[in-house]
């Protein structure tokens, strides 16, 4: 009987990753969004999301094995829905997951096309997609003590020319997100 070789360093940890497709703001935009969240939502209490964690989820994929990740990356490489610009112009709160967010009152058609194309790609890779309607948002504060009502905010323009596959990692100091790979639109 042949013994299996021991796993290489990192193999076990990399076998399943918690993944999602997202739009990732450039660092300067992450800092601006964080500052805006501080100015407009700090008074609500809760914990502001750190600048480097700020993102807009396109499709949540969940626990993903290596083969599925390869399939998702190939599918992402076939998506070309075109560049667009987002306007974040509203702030709101959802009791579940107990978070305050910035969102767009009028999501651009190309954003919805991108989401639909990635959902189709993910479905083709066997990902079990959630059925609730898509709501474009950037979570900016968690567990506010005084949840904010829906308010309009001074619009933040976000020119979008790439999307990413990102990983979510739970660590003792909280959740960390990291873009793994980007594709042009
Ligand atoms: P945690 O679950 O640890 O409280 P989180 O929800 O921010 O933190 P993940 O659950 O890993 O982290 O989610 C990664 C990203 O995907 C986040 O932007 C999250 O809002 C989004 N997301 C998670 N679950 C879903 C879902 N079922 N549908 C849509 N987006 C989701
Ligand atoms: Mg979650």
Give a written overview of the molecule.
This protein is an alpha+beta fold. The protein has one domain (18-184): Alpha-Beta Complex (Cyclic Phosphodiesterase, Chain: A), CATH 3.90.1140. The protein has helices spanning 11-15, 27-41, 66-77, 109-124; strands spanning 16-23, 47-48, 56-65, 84-94, 99-103, 137-142, 151-160, 162-171, 174-184. The strands form 2 sheets. Strands 2-6-5-4-7 form a 5-stranded antiparallel sheet, covered by helices on one side. A 4-stranded antiparallel sheet has the order 3-1-8-9. β8 (162-171) and β9 (174-184) form a beta hairpin. The termini are far apart. Adenosine-5'-triphosphate (ATP) binds next to β1, β3 and β8. Residues 18, 20, 57, 60, 97, 130, 139, 168, 170, 175 line the site of adenosine-5'-triphosphate.
Distance between the terminal alpha carbons, to the nearest Å? 51 Å
What is the CATH class? Alpha Beta
Element string (H = helix, E = strand): HEHEEHEEHEEEE
CATH architecture: Alpha-Beta Complex
Provide a count of the helices. 4
The stretches of 5 or more residues where confidence is low (pLDDT under 50) are 4-13
Strand pairing plus helix content: what structural class?
Answer: alpha+beta
Fraction of helical residues: 25-40%
- Average pLDDT figure: 91
Rg calculated over all Cα atoms: 18 Å
Count of domain modules = 1
Largest sheet: 5 strands, antiparallel
How many beta strands in the DSSP annotation?
Answer: 9
Small ligands present: adenosine-5'-triphosphate, magnesium ion
| Overall morphology | globular
CATH topology name: Cyclic Phosphodiesterase, Chain: A
Strand content bin: 35-45%
Query: Which strand order spans the largest sheet, edge to edge or round the barrel?
Result: 2-6-5-4-7
The CATH superfamily title: Cyclic phosphodiesterase
